[in-house]
């Protein structure tokens, strides 16, 4: 058994995880240890690298984050591991295929052959032995536009920048993001999955380009507000260079509330070491009140680093997935698991 292997888990709670990139990959690695019924809802605004090239040349939904979600949920058998490694493989060299991921090319081709992205993802999921699903958050490719300060000599002046890569790497401070086109459609299957879920997970990940976009799709945020699922927000371990440089944990919550003022969540998972005891936790508690959430502090970092440990995070999710009596007052008492 490899270090990334784990025993088969029985069908547990129906889990839906929203996000993109490496953050969603980490969440899915934890969620699949809790249940075999896991659906990933993935951002579709990437405009860089292999995904950006295929998006521009073929007009497809950027496949990179979708591919990573498929790999995160793939079965742990030797045959499937070969397929997973192939999907993740990138071509070298200097030719037309240089830098392209094999999986991105396969998804682009399958989408054309099968007449749609969702059908292609379901077929690739079948090949990879996935019990849940991987779905795009929208059936169309989206763009991210951000208001950024700190790029001009006058720090009060805001500049509008466009594109996920530009937003993720800006040296300025992101104040607000929007999706283009405005009010985009949601993937119907993603909406249905949220409505039928027992546990919905949001984050971690690039806050402005992988997490917040989900609450900017009207049908998705409406489903998040109406679902009877337990909703859990997983905070980043550290501020991300570019997008959230200098952001405290509290600031992450305020930004989410600003973009989706009517959204509430039940739980917020915070790595114990990332927010020291004292005033910072007091500030975070008050920010959690805006979302009606209970803070759960736990050791979820991988060797104290900047990535989440799948096993540690799974242990917390396993407890949160169990129904319990909940208080009705926003900002409930903090729980701590070590």
TrEMBL record:
Regions crossing the membrane: none
SUPFAM superfamilies given for it? CofD-like
Q: What keywords is this UniProt entry annotated with?
A: Cytoplasm
Q: What does this protein do?
A: Required for morphogenesis under gluconeogenic growth conditions.
Similarity annotation: Belongs to the gluconeogenesis factor family.
List the NCBIfam families hit by this protein, alphabetically: CofD_related (TIGR01826)
Q: What is this protein called?
A: Putative gluconeogenesis factor
Q: Which organism is it from?
A: Rhodococcus oryzae
């Amino acid at each position: 058994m490899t270090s990334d292997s784990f025993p088969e888990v029985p069908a547990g709670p129906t889990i839906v995880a929203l996000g993109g990139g490496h953050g969603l990959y980490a969440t899915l690695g934890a969620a699949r240890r809790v249940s075999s019924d896991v659906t990933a809802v993935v951002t579709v605004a990437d405009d860089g690298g292999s995904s950006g090239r295929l998006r521009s040349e073929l007009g497809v939904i950027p496949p990179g984050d979708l591919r990573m979600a498929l790999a995160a949920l793939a079965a742990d058998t030797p045959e499937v591991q070969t397929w997973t490694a192939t999907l993740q493989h990138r071509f070298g060299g200097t030719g037309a295929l240089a830098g392209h991921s094999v999986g991105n090319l396969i998804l682009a081709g399958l989408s054309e052959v099968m007449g749609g992205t969702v059908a292609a993802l379901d077929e690739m999921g079948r090949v990879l032995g996935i019990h849940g699903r991987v779905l795009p958050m929208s059936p169309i490719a989206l763009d991210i536009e951000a208001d950024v300060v700190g790029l001009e000599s006058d720090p009060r002046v805001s500049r509008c920048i466009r594109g996920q890569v530009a937003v993720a790497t800006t040296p300025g401070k992101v104040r607000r993001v929007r999706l283009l086109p405005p009010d985009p459609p949601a993937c119907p299957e993603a909406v249905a999955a949220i409505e039928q879920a027992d546990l919905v997970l949001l984050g971690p990940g690039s806050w402005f380009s992988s997490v917040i976009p989900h609450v900017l799709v009207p049908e998705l945020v409406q489903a998040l507000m109406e679902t009877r699922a337990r909703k859990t927000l997983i905070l980043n371990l550290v501020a991300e260079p570019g997008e959230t440089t200098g952001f405290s944990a509290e600031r992450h919550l305020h930004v989410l509330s600003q973009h989706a003022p009517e959204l509430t969540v039940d739980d917020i998972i915070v790595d114990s070491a990332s927010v020291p005891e004292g005033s910072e936790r007091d500030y975070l508690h008050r920010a959690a009140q805006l979302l009606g959430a209970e803070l759960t502090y736990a050791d979820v970092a991988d060797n104290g680093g900047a990535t989440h440990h799948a096993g540690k995070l799974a242990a917390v999710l396993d407890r949160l997935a169990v129904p319990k009596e909940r208080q009705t007052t926003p900002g409930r008492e903090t729980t701590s698991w070590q």
